[in-house]
Design brief:
54% of the residues lie in helices and 15% in strands. The protein contains 10 helices and 7 strands. A hairpin with a 2-residue loop joins β3 (59-60) and β4 (63-64).
Amino acid sequence: MRPYRLGLTGSIGMGKSTTAGFFREFGVPVWDADAAVHRLYAPGGAAVGPVGALCPAAIVDGTIDRGALKDWIAQDKEALAKLEAVVHPLVAEDRAAFVAGAQAPLVVLDIPLLFEVGADVDGVLVVTAPPEVQRARVLARPGMTAAQYEAILARQMPDAEKRARADFVIETLDMDSTRRDVRNLVELLGAK
């Protein structure tokens, strides 16, 4: 029997990683889209050859250099669409393999851009926090500037729209209440 696939999403700084950690704590398998991309970009990763064919300068020591990809995307307005056409299907294959191999009634699919790129899920959990909390969390990250933060936000679907489209919403104001809300959701979805 296929597990219930809960998509986990939310804007930058909303607490996706912390929330995913709580699901793991309660024994729920978690697939992470960002980790999948790192695997695909690593030496021997499935994206190395196809991305190298698009942008040879992005391959350094058998791995994909993200800085070179950013430069390419900045110089070529069609680059991002070309890159996504290669990487998104590979990420979807990785996610499908994870779900197929899961021996659990519930799996969490941590997909930061779930609404923007789409994914086959049974329900969506959006994590959220007030704008001032979100901003403080993001700007506390090493090397993050206010301009970078605003640029990232501009590319993401607004939090209010994500919450409106969600099946479940957890506000991530503190660890204890977030952990409790995750435990309650795990119990609700039958993955005790």
